[in-house]
Design brief:
Largest sheet: 3 strands, antiparallel
Distance between the termini: 56 Å
CATH class of the largest domain: Alpha Beta
Strand content: 15-25%
GO molecular function, one term: structural constituent of ribosome
Shape: elongated
Number of helices: 6
Radius of gyration: 19 Å
Order of helices and strands: HEHHEEHEHHE
Structural class: alpha+beta
CATH topology of the largest domain: Ribosomal protein L11, N-terminal domain
Helix content: 25-40%
CATH superfamily of the largest domain: Ribosomal protein L11/L12, N-terminal domain
Bound molecules: 2-acetamido-2-deoxy-beta-D-glucopyranose
Protein name: Large ribosomal subunit protein uL11m
InterPro entries: Ribosomal_uL11 (IPR000911), Ribosomal_uL11_bac-typ (IPR006519), Ribosomal_uL11_C (IPR020783), Ribosomal_uL11_C_sf (IPR036769), Ribosomal_uL11_N (IPR020784), Ribosomal_uL11_N_sf (IPR036796)
Family: Belongs to the universal ribosomal protein uL11 family.
Organism: Eleusine coracana subsp. coracana
Number of domains: 2
Length: 154
């Protein structure tokens, strides 16, 4: 028997739409309104679902949405949080990474920051099978390559 996922995969696709939408703040206004309206998709249903799914992120976090619109006016979407470097810069309160990481560190963060970013990243479609430990290691690697030193306590 075909699963729902198989059936969905067979539906004729009308378009794939990519949008950046602030967490918890999808509204029937640009850019969301016109993009979904153009394909006659249920705008209010999208806003409600997106806002529910992105509740746990801080307001204004720029979420990356990839929406698949089907010919029967139904749709599906996946939401991805911003890059690890975006979260690290926000947490450290810096705009740019160090030009000489390791020699000239621009900031320090604690393991707690790393852990919080890892928990948010784990909600991403491509990270959900990664352990928190693996995510933390990868985040520490990114931090070090940006000149952000990770310490136990500040
Ligand atoms: C910068 O951070 C790295 C990695 O966290 C550390 O090994 C290095 O000693 C730091 N460099 C300076 C100059 O503080």
């Amino acid at each position: 028997m075909a699963t729902l996922k198989d059936l969905a995969a067979r539906k004729p696709v009308l378009a794939t739409i990519r949008l950046i939408v602030p967490a918890g703040a999808a509204r029937p206004a640009p850019p969301v309104g016109p993009a979904l309206g153009f394909y006659r998709l249920n705008l209010m249903a999208f806003c409600k679902d997106f806002n529910a799914r992105t509740q746990k992120y801080k307001a204004e976090t720029p979420m990356q949405v990839t929406l698949t619109a089907y010919k029967d006016s139904t749709f599906e979407f996946v939401v991805k949080s911003p890059s690890v470097s975006w979260f690290l810069k926000k947490a450290a309160g810096i705009d740019t990474a160090s030009s000489r990481p390791g020699h000239n560190n621009v900031s320090s963060l604690t393991l707690r920051h790393v852990y919080e970013i890892a928990k948010l990243k784990q909600a991403d479609p491509f990270c959900k099978h990664m352990s928190l430990e693996a995510l933390c290691k990868s985040i520490i690697g990114t931090a070090n390559s940006m000149g952000i030193e990770i310490v136990k306590d500040l």
